[in-house]
Amino acid sequence: MENTLKTPKAKTKKQKKEPLFHVIKRGHTPTWMSILVRVAAILLAFIVSAIFLAITNNVSVGKFLFAMFTGNFGNSAKVFNTLTDFAILLGLAIALIPAFKMKFWNTGADGQALIGALVSYVIAYNFQGKVPNPLIVVLCILGAIVAGVIFGVIPAIFKAFFNTNETLFTLMMNYVAIQFVLIACHTIGATNNYNLFALTGGILEPLKVGVGKLNLVAILSILILFLIVSLYLIKTKHGFEISIIGESVNTAKYVGINVKLSLIRTMAISGGICGFVGFLILNTTGSHTLTANTLGGLGFTAIIVVWLANFNPFYTLLTTFLVVFLKRGTNALNLTSASAPSAVIAVFFFFIIGISFFATYKIVARRNEEGKIDNKFAWLMHVITYYPATWIEKLNKKIGDFFNVTFKNRVKKDTKDVIEELPKSQEASLDINETSSVSEIGTNDEVNSFSNINLDDIKDDNEVQNEESSLDKEVQE
User: Fold this and answer.
1) Is position 424 within any domain?
2) 3-class secondary-structure state, position 44
3) Which range marks the domain in which residue 280 is found?
4) pLDDT tens profile 291-342
5) How many domains is the chain partitioned into structurally?
6) DSSP per residue over 353-422, as a string?
7) How far apart are CA 154 and CA 169, in angstroms?
8) Predicted TM-score of the model (pTM)
9) Closest CA to 277 of 307, 262, 298, 292
10) Could you tell me the CATH number of the domain that includes residue 139?
């Protein structure tokens, strides 16, 4: 009988190849290099933005740079307006930092601030002229904070107990807040039913003594709030819990952290701060009125600001000021294109985020079994990215070695100068004190064994000292 066993068929499908590139995180990057990379990105973005405006709007580079500074610091009113915009955006940004640090992606800052502004408006509208202004201020602040807390806690509860998607949930809450404002506009709004009646001078009018005083209330309030939130995240137990949960939820549960409670508490803080910012937007800026577009997407801009700062409160100061500086400076050009300021800001975001990515990660090309790059395009990308990174690493090493050697030589020189400047009288007194202390030690029975020290040990110590002195000479050379 013939053998009917069949040999296994050869594989017809090609084996799956590895990806052409791998993205690998770099090692530790020095702080000075990280700062230098971002400064270079900002300068490059300035050049590209100037070229873009010159081509699209016929704006010279000099006019562009001049408008950047005059639009922000041209007079005292512009300075106050710049600082106010900076304070409002910073307030929304620091509201998002605690939530983002624990990986809760709160995209509802717009709605939380808008509902806070609406509640404070309703309180002021109904009580203005009936109770003293200071009491109205307190009630409006409390109402705005409570409203923001509610809009922040609702998504947190659903996330904690039902594991819903917090990004979509908080995003949808923005539209809920807008609908509440539209209902109020149709109920107690002006004749066009799209905005509320302006409060007579605002409830903080008694604080206004001159130009910009109302702006100063917002600026100082946000700066104080910034310090409080920074200390809360850095110095408190709850701030430490937020960091642990952000790193690993399982680790947080293992060490005994109540993740659900921390999540709800953090979102209550985030929503409350947004509600307070809504109160400031209504009562310290503009015409003391409210529409569905009052925030104008400012909460989404705050998300980008926080991401650029890597959730660091102090870096957030710089990124917030950069965004406000660009926006007000570009608006001062009075361009015909309304989208030009947004385009300039987008260019800056593109360069900063892109360069920050390559400063944190590196692209490694695929290699074959012989260790060679088997693709021409991959080889080209390897040359473009590898050699500049290698040069930067070598430069970093040389700078570090230079500072280390300089510091050591400086310490040795200072020590030598101090010894040479020591008066002879002090040296003599030092010798007398040393001999007296030795005689006192000799009277102690427990230390009399000092005289029995092995001479070989002394010899070894001398050899060690000679070796150290020779090494010092080599370092100095």
Assistant:
1) no
2) helix
3) 76-334
4) 888 898 999 999 989 988 889 999 899 999 999 998 888 888 877 776 777 7
5) 1
6) HHHHHHHHEEEEE-B-TTS-B--HHHHHHHHHHHHHHHHHHHHHHHHHHHHHHHHHHHHHHHHHHHHHTS
7) 9
8) 0.73
9) 298
10) 1.10.3470.10
